[in-house]
Amino acid sequence: MSEAAAxxxxxxxxxxxxxxxxxxxxxxxxxxxLAILPGFFTTPPLDRDESRYAQASRQMLETGDFVExxxxxxxxxxxxAGVYWMQAASAAVLGGAEAAPIWxxxxxxxxxxxxxxxxxxxxxxxxxxxxxxLLGALLAGAxxxxxxxxxxxxxxxxxxxxxxxxxGALARAYLSARRGEEAPGWGITTIFWVxxxxxxxxxxxxxxxxxxxxxxxxxxxxxxxxxxxxxxxxSGAAIAALIAAPWLIAIWIATGGxxxxxxxxxxxxxxxxxxxxxxxxxxxxxxxxxSLMFWPAGLFVWPALACAWQxxxxxxxxxxxxxxxxxxxVFELTPTKLPHYVLPxxxxxxLLVAAFLLSAQADGFRILxxxxxxxxxxxxxxxxxxxxxxxxxxxAGAYWLIAPLAVLIAATALYVGWSAWREASVRAxxxxxxxxxxxxxLIFQLTLPALTDLALSPRLTAAVERHEGPGSPxxxxxxxxxxxxxxxxxxxxxLGAPETAAEHxxxxxxxxxxxxxxxxxRFLARAGELGLVLEERxxxxxxxxxxxxxxxxxxxxxxEHRP
Length: 563
Description:
The chain is α/β, with parallel strands linked by helices. The chain has three domains: about 25-270, no CATH class; about 365-455; about 455-560, 3-Layer(aba) Sandwich (D-Maltodextrin-Binding Protein, domain 2). The protein is built from 24 helices and seven strands. It has helices spanning about 10-20, 25-35, 50-65, 80-95, 95-100, 100-125, 130-140, 145-150, 155-180, 185-205, 205-220, 235-255, 260-275, 285-295, 300-310, 315-335, 345-355, 365-395, 400-420, 425-450, 455-465, 485-490, 500-505, 520-530; strands at about 70, 75, 475-480, 495, 510-515, 535-545, 550-560. The strands form two sheets. Strands 4-3-5-7-6 form a five-stranded mixed beta sheet, sandwiched between helices. Strands 1-2 form a two-stranded antiparallel sheet. It is globular.
């Protein structure tokens, strides 16, 4: 084939971009599907937050009480009911309280990530041009932080959707004022305030906080607060109140105000005053994790942020900085830290990276670019190694297909790094995303199922089903009380002391007891006092990743009483 007939690599990528630009929403959804679907249906219930959310949502279906939130008999006065309602609705359609699998409860998170990526494109259209909006949305949807949350049945993916919806509307109000254009109509105003009300029902004050901090920073920098009136704050606040207030009033009445005491004074206050549940970290924690949590979209994240700071006089760039920076600082200064806390800032960062790559500045910041690329390559190589090594440590050995796929991913990552080392380009960024999608598919679809030592709850559930008597009486567990076990075995599962386990076997014909090794002696002593003849049906060994300790758990059933 002649040189003229053979399309260059640059020409191929231009064609890809042209086609994606014609159908941007389709391209965004496709990338999100490739990122989230691997492992979505096969990953077992995770401890501890996912299983608590899913179990509480299931209990709403079981009891018909959609006001109070409970995990078994314990009130969960931590987060509002919005996501629980969404999970309950999804589970009701996909099998109901008894039959819905864990992935049914993950559907709202899946919708949250896909919706947030599409809304990043919508926000980017207001701030930049079509190509920056599209690239930013692809990067936001493919980031590891978003992909992980899309696999988990909890609040943060849907929170991200409400934040991006609100920020897209806020951007239109801000830029229309800066450009001397007409104020946004009621449609944009309604989107903003509906997002605020929905955000409150999903995770309390986070969505309003992000928007308020953005407004305050811009008002201070520009010395102008009048543009905020374009969002009709009086009537808009009424819209948000109509969405959030009914449940807030109902839960106040139902709990006598205990929900607010626990949620504000306990949960939120604990996070603000100390490292709650041992999730502490020094200031700079989130910054240190940025390259990992924004991977594989972060191939050029560090030069992009430096470029954005230099270009902060531009209205669109200034808005993105005002969106990301103050919220980031709040979470850096909060003693309790988890990697996903700064997820609401990722769409702004993704748009800044896209703007950098499609600007004339992309060839600058050579040192920062090479540092950023080196970190990206290192993370990818470490993940490829972990994909192969983890099953050897926490399973029966790697599935034969994992190793060659990991080698292929590592080799491609080195090629991407070599290309990005020479120049910052959209082509390199998208190749990096493609490598990342392949690596995440490998880990979620092949590696995680191979970690059988970590899958204690599924293995214990299978053991209970093998050994329980007719009628499937409730099981009891002593020493292992992870929420995933309750979700797997059902709401009636008992968790308690070893004496309680023995008493349950004595009182419930055909019941099964799960007893850890360190509680075995007390369990056997109480069983002897009750005259039980015990049958140790099975012994299961594994590693409790939530507690960080290896466990040996015996599966018992009661035989005949002694004469």
